[in-house]
Amino acid sequence: MEANPASPQSQPQETARAAREVIELLEVLWERGKDMASSTPVSPSQLRVLYSLDREDGINLRTLGELLGSAAPSVSRLCDRLEALGFVQRLPSPVSRRELELHLTSSGKAYLRDLRAQRQEALQAVIAAMTPSERKALLKGLGGFQGALEGAGAVPRRRLAAKDVRSA
Predict the structure, then answer these.
(1) What is the DSSP secondary-structure string of 112-154?
(2) Strand ranges (E), the chain
(3) Could you tell me which of 3, 54, 133, 145 has the fewest CB atoms within 10 Å of its CB?
(4) What's the CA gap between 78 and 59, in Å, rounded?
(5) Are 86 and 108 in contact, with CB atoms under 8 Å apart?
(6) 87 domain residue, yes or no
(7) Integer distance in angstroms from the first to the last C-alpha of the chain?
(8) Does residue 84 form part of some domain?
(9) Please, is 30 exposed, middle or buried when counting C-beta atoms within 10 Å of its C-beta (0-12, 13-18, 19+)?
(10) How far is the C-alpha of 13 from the C-alpha of 40, rounded, in Å?
(11) Local mean pLDDT, 10-residue blocks, the chain (168 residues)
(12) Per the domain annotation, does 140 fall within a domain?
């Protein structure tokens, strides 16, 4: 007897469940990698700030708060901690004397570069165990997922770096 394919109505639910499970496994993988890391640990909230500033360099606290869906005082405290670690700096805005711009420092950029390299290495080890057709399907699915997130306005569109344009 043939297996019943999932109904069109249940496919999004099953796909969301599978994605959630993969995300949870990735969190475990990242935590395991953190134990081996020699870099300064940051909280998940602080990491979201670093990612946001990496994508949107020079934004102010209000804009960062909007991106994170957080209140200004919370965002300010996060930035205080990251500034104390030497990962973020606040500079006067050239446009408005009343505003400060947020920038990643070279230490903040290095932290993200090292973290991403660690995560890339861990992912490559897992992906290498997949068949070529599974890797191709994963790449296509992840591209569609990212496009849907950006299209829904759930995340800001990532600015293409020169290296991204060259590799496209």
Answers:
(1) HHHHHHHHHHHHHHHHHTS-HHHHHHHHHHHHHHHHHHHHTTS
(2) 88-92, 100-104
(3) 3
(4) 15
(5) yes
(6) yes
(7) 45
(8) yes
(9) middle
(10) 38
(11) 56 87 84 60 90 94 92 93 96 87 96 90 91 94 88 60 38
(12) no
